[in-house]
User: What shape does this take?
Amino acid sequence: MGDLCLVINLGSSSLKAALVDSTGAFVWHEGRSLAKDDVLEDVLDSWLTPAIAPHGHRLQRIGHRVVHGGERFTAPTLITPEVESRLTELIPLAPLHNPPALIGLAWARQRAPDCPQWACFDTAFHSSLPAAASTYAIPQQLRGKGFRRFGFHGINHQHVAESVAEQWRQQGRDPASLRLISAHLGAGASLAAIKGGICIDTTMGFTPLEGLVMATRSGSIDPGLLLELMREGYSADAMADILQKDSGLKGLSGLSGDMREIRAAAGNGHNGAIRALNVFLHRLIQLLGAMAASLRGVDVLALTGGIGEHDLQLQNELRQALAWWGDVDVIVVPADEEGMIARLCQRHSTSVKSAAIG
Assistant: This one.
């Protein structure tokens, strides 16, 4: 009976949690959707408490997914009062995602006050971006305020990178030479260009709005369009709602942000659904090309996330559209944020213990 890590992955509209043992095996793993009127503490009490109660005596550490770590947090970090205060300061960078994570952290501290808690950041894997990839072409006075490209989905992109590297090792190939594009395609979507295990480019930027077409998020658009909306009297809040909640597949189709519903409607000849699929695929192929250019070639394209893993039609469309790439493996790697968080917590807690002993 080994020690366990409790992983709490709180999103803006979902909650996933897992108990992972020291070998990386799941003892328990579930998820659920959150309604707008849900009180997170009540959900955690009613759903998570009874699930973990039989295993409480084995609980060794708790890991949390935090979407935005800013420029300061670039690795899994042991939670202290100072760290928690710093995370609160970062809320404006991820107002939909960081607050739930902080609620989960406070809840876990009350329920297991003696158990070390760790924060794992979606931005951390992208901290290796070279300056040319992370810098916006804006004046220094703005760059000095921290306006730069951060990138997101880093926990799962790292999981994909490590999984594919292990496959190469088993094939007798050197992972240091691996040129990989990780395509996280779900309600949120982003690409990462990974060379020898190091992220060198990605499609999301200062916020998770940049890049690919997503379920309800627009992806990249001309900034001039936003200026025009401002001239027409749209407030910042109104524009945020449009770009984050009413755009993407939902806005293009006029139906839904769910790719499964759009596929079904397109099969019945719905013009909006057909338009959504065409724009989604065009932007995806376009940005895959950009990641390939950053890598100076591609060995593996790994599809992950709900759409990437399960949309067989998209997988076939990509294989056909990218045939000109030549000898590139297009594979599927199931997403595993919870497992990756547990592994990161275990690695870094071991490092902390080793440093203390040394």
